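Narrative of activities, Objective 1.

The group set out to show that a structural description can be obtained from nothing but a protein's sequence at a throughput compatible with the screening campaign. Below is one input-output pair from the validation batch, recorded exactly as produced.
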Amino acid sequence: MVDLHIITSDDWPLWRDIRVAALTDAPHAFKARLADWHGGGQEQWRARLAIPGSYNVVALRESRPVGMVRGIPGDSGTSELRSLWVSPEARGDGVGDQLIEAVTMWALRSGSTTLKLAVIPGNESATALYRRHGFITTEELGDLLSDGVTREQVMAKRLR
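Output recorded for this entry:
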């Protein structure tokens, strides 16, 4: 059984620990690198969780963090799903589905009409998960990756 917990900037040590685990386990799946956060102090972690209107969720199994996701409010009725990660021991158990659904419900409650995300090209398991939840690839150009050539793939779904 997995419990989802909404966390705040006061929970920064938990967020730091799970984010470091995510970046260590799946560096290929994130634009950010562990080195970007490795030396980050308390204020850097708190600031990440204190974005106005953000929704930060950690999945816990028997009090151990096994997943994470963020919802970030955007412009013109669009919110963003970010930083989705599920630990290897919890993959295939529906944790990713629960985290995506939690952010989707948050976006709806926030009045968003669209939920979008960015995925690193080649991350087929993440892309398949997002497609199962109704996300489709858009023509929007994602952020440029560290190679200076490749861009993130932007996906979105209508909520209303």
